[in-house]
Amino acid sequence: MFGKKKTSIVKMLPKLKGEIREHELLAKHTWFGVGGPAEVMFFPADNDDLREFVRNKPHNLPVFVIGSGSNLLVRDGGIPGVVIKLSSKFYRQWQMDGDKLICGAGMKNAELKKIMTENNIGGLEFLVSIPGSLGGAIKTNAGCFGRELKDVLAGATVINEEGEELEVSADDFNFGYRCSFFPEGWIVTSMTLKVVPQDAQETLRIIEEQKQYRLKSQPINAKTAGSTFKNPEGLRAWELIKNTKSNELKVGGAAVSDKHCNFLINTGDASAEDIENLGESIIKKVKDETSIVLEWEVKRVGIKK
Ligand SMILES: Cc1cc2nc3c(=O)[nH]c(=O)nc-3n(C[C@H](O)[C@H](O)[C@H](O)COP(=O)(O)OP(=O)(O)OC[C@H]3O[C@@H](n4cnc5c(N)ncnc54)[C@H](O)[C@@H]3O)c2cc1C
Fold it and tell me: Domain check: are 188 and 252 in the same one?
């Protein structure tokens, strides 16, 4: 593994202001609570720092951006290369600009609650109940309760593979259902969201209603990464799992949630391998019994141990 390599890639990196951690355990950065180490983890101080990294890192050094890790299954062997996390203060800043809200990509969706109520604005309530950061919400076109990120995005700032800062429009992300397609190497650093004037009490009411719905129907306090499989066209993944009794399968510490059949959970001591093997066993059972092949919605990254 990375530890056995003779040359640390840290020595090959330019001089940076942000924090660098070698062999940082990614289990600490994922909702599943699993995942091996990042060979190097970099927490840029600001955009100048991030640009310096992108422009002067060794060519072909693999780079992966992590948000809050709420849609990721990081494998037990970890992620080679550099994992970037935009969690410094710079990436959690926000400001109002007329009827728009400009936010750093490292801001947690949940932080929008305070901003909306303190400024008597609304329109982003659905995002508050989705775990994760705004950067992750763009990549996954996060959505629920009939709305998705693309409905509220006016534009964003990204740093591209050449280290240039670009202003891009919402259309440039090519949003689809729970996904977006933008050039490999783009790192979203901030975004402009459309908001509407709204009384704080009304915002709180909507957020509370959505929270109660989630509490009843999803294991939001468990170690999970949300919906595991995409709904096949015209069908529901959870129904296929339930009807085939695949929800009764278990692998090591990985199980299917009692509250929602499409949520896999780490019951305590699961490895990433347990969770991935459980997912694959479900895919096989559903296919054997219905011919339908479920596709992973959770993004699996990194290498096996
Ligand atoms: C209990 C639970 C409930 C959930 N419910 C929902 C739901 O209702 N609706 C829904 O849509 N999702 C839901 N999810 C899934 C998840 O919360 C969303 O997909 C979320 O948007 C992921 O954000 P994140 O910051 O955690 O991203 P991560 O999981 O860390 O990363 C997801 C992807 O985004 C990329 N990424 C992250 N930041 C950036 C950036 N700055 N620039 C470029 N790429 C970036 C990563 O490389 C990765 O490809 C749920 C998850 C859980 C655990």
Answer: no
Q: Which residue has the tokens 């947690």?
A: 108
CA separation, residue 254 to residues 70, 183, 240, 258, 285 (Å): 16, 34, 19, 12, 16
Query: Which CATH number does the domain housing residue 24 bear?
Result: 3.30.43.10
> Containing domain of residue 296, as a range?
223-301
Residues with CB under 6 A from ligand 1: 31, 64-72, 86, 105, 130-133, 135-137, 139-140, 142-144, 178, 187-188, 218, 220, 224-226, 299
CATH number at residue 202: 3.30.465.10
202 burial (CB, 10 Å; 0-12 / 13-18 / 19+) is middle
pLDDT, one tens digit per residue, over 111-152 is 999 999 999 999 999 999 999 999 999 999 999 999 999 999
Convert the pLDDT of each residue in 48-102 to its tens digit.
999 999 999 999 999 999 999 999 999 999 999 999 999 999 999 999 999 999 9
